[in-house]
Amino acid sequence: MDYSILLDAAPAAADAAKTAIDRIKDSDPVAITFFIGYMAMFASAVFFFVERGSVDGKWKLSLLVSGLITGIAAVHYYYMRDFYLTQGDSPTAFRYVDWTLTVPLMCVEFYLLTKPFGAKGSTLFKLIIASLLMLVAGYLGEAVYKDNNVLWGWISTVGYLYIVYEVFAGDVAKLASSSNSPALGRAMFLLKIFITLGWSIYPIGYMLLDGNLLANVDISIDLIYNLADAINKIGFGLVVYSVAVAESGKK
Ligand SMILES: *C/C=C(C)/C=C/C=C(C)/C=C/C1=C(C)CCCC1(C)C
User: Fold this and answer.
1) pLDDT tens for residues 70-85?
2) Which CATH fold would you assign to the domain 4-248?
């Protein structure tokens, strides 16, 4: 048995471990946001699961979905944090696996908000298809056809704009305007803010890719994505939580 390969590998492994510790020691902001993201997602998931007990019937499902979104993200942040620390590179595949699970769940969340006012399953279906187009195209541009990331970014944007359209003028908007609950009205207003401002942080991050509009700006794409995830997953979860509490008459 030839053990020399192990001896060769040992210093490399030690190096990788050292860089991980060095990154934290050097207060690498990206590494720190992966840590904070992990803990914040985890804590939010616990919060949403536990708070299910304090809201009325139909809102329990909404809080369960919020808990799943942040819980799934917590698991991915655990791996992304590790990947970033040891490889010093963007965990693009983990990132997109996470989004592919959590973005459709966010669409379920929008659907559940408008369901009491007659939202149809077909609306949910359209939102999920649009979000998948957005994410698959984004992944192809970011990981597979990097040289053509601008083109794939535009294709992805078509999916994104369709979701914006649904929320502002399509089915989701029509239903929300037919409700007379002030709490739901407020939630729908905030939903629009999250979809237009909160979600637009992602394409801005994407523009940092080589050859894209902001390629010369010296910011880590992960810093932008981590910030956006915290705002959108935890922030929107809290919006749903506040409607749920208000509608449960337990303010
Ligand atoms: C929890 C994760 C969320 C809410 C992720 C949302 C992601 C987007 C809205 C991504 C959008 C993109 C574009 C509109 C164009 C460029 C490629 C993407 C995938 C970054």
Assistant:
1) 999 999 999 999 999 9
2) Rhopdopsin 7-helix transmembrane proteins (1.20.1070)
